[in-house]
Design goal:
By secondary structure, the chain is an alpha/beta fold. The protein has 15 helices and 5 strands. The chain folds into 3 domains: 112 residues, 3-Layer(aba) Sandwich (Glutaredoxin), CATH 3.40.30.10; 65 residues; 81 residues, Serine Threonine Protein Phosphatase 5, Tetratricopeptide repeat, CATH 1.25.40.
Length: 288
């Protein structure tokens, strides 16, 4: 893989060309925006991996590099609180993102969740992605934190891995202990919403029992609310959101407007931008 191949899909961006080169360009090609700085150690690890993947994907996405020291207004506009921070812009909107220097396997997983490599992309040099289990991620991150205790972004990564492994209380403890600059980062906000939803199910009836209660009495709002949470966390997001919308439509003020709060929390936890957009519009039609 030559340096020329990598450079063809990587470019620098500042305030004066962001609109054209990122927002407008993303209408046809996804743009991965890397917020970095010359003094940032983790950036020096992440940057070359992103450039390598941009070359391997061979035009399926382009990599925009934003030096936060030279483009402070852009960094402020996107609420960048730690670097490196990476955001994927598609169809003119931020679709997803992450902070910190992820391992290459997780970078590939992030990209392939949203982008399909073009025909002929990749080559014999590409390394196969190795799936990492949540427990393996926890062990890796705990070792990394022991070696570099001042890297706070690793602690957020650990909280996310703990939540993915089902260790809700441990994840909450790590989240609570995060410094203020990370507590409002997008992934921390998402994790907080996931924890709020998980706490709601403590001692809750089973999925089957909740479904029976709702079938027997469609106005059993408490059962419908818990059913929505269960469906959402167990992987049937659309069905879960439908339960919250049903409450919003027929009992908007129930439990201090809990249905609206559930929907907003759910939106922050979901990766499916099309699904979230559809249900945001449905929620708005009921509220306004």
């Amino acid at each position: 893989m030559s340096a020329t191949t990598a450079q063809a899909h990587v470019f620098e961006v500042r305030e004066d060309n962001f609109e054209a080169e990122v927002l407008q360009a993303s209408l046809t090609t996804p743009i991965l925006v890397d917020f970095w700085a010359t003094w940032c150690g983790p950036c020096k690890t992440l940057g070359p991996m992103l450039e390598k993947l941009a070359a391997e994907f061979n035009g399926a996405f382009r990599l925009a590099k934003v030096d936060v020291d030279k483009s402070q207004q852009l960094a402020a506009m996107f609420g960048i609180r730690s670097i490196p921070t990476v955001m994927l812009v598609k169809d003119g909107q931020v679709l997803d993102g992450f902070a910190g220097a992820l391992p290459e396997g997780q970078l590939r997983e992030f990209l392939t969740r949203h982008i399909q490599p073009l025909d002929g992309a990749g080559d014999a040099e590409a390394e196969p992605a190795v799936a990492e289990s949540p427990e393996e991620a926890i062990n890796r991150l705990q070792q990394a934190i022991a070696a570099e205790p001042d890297r706070s972004e690793l602690k957020l990564d650990l909280a996310l891995a703990l939540m993915q492994a089902g260790h809700v209380e441990a994840a909450e403890a790590e989240l609570t202990a995060l410094p203020a600059n990370l507590a409002t980062e997008a992934r921390a906000v998402r994790l907080r919403s996931q924890l709020d939803l998980a706490r709601a199910l403590k001692g809750a009836p089973s999925l089957a029992e909740l479904q029976q209660r709702v079938q027997a009495d469609g106005t059993d709002w408490a059962a419908r609310d818990l059913l929505g949470v269960r469906l959402l966390l167990e992987g049937d997001a659309a069905a879960g959101l439908d339960q919250f919308l049903a409450i919003l439509e027929r009992a908007r003020d129930w439990n201090d407007g809990q249905a609206k709060k559930r929907l907003l929390a759910a939106f922050t936890t979901l990766d499916d931008g099309e699904l979230v957009g559809r249900y945001r519009r449905r929620m708005a039609s009921l509220l306004f």
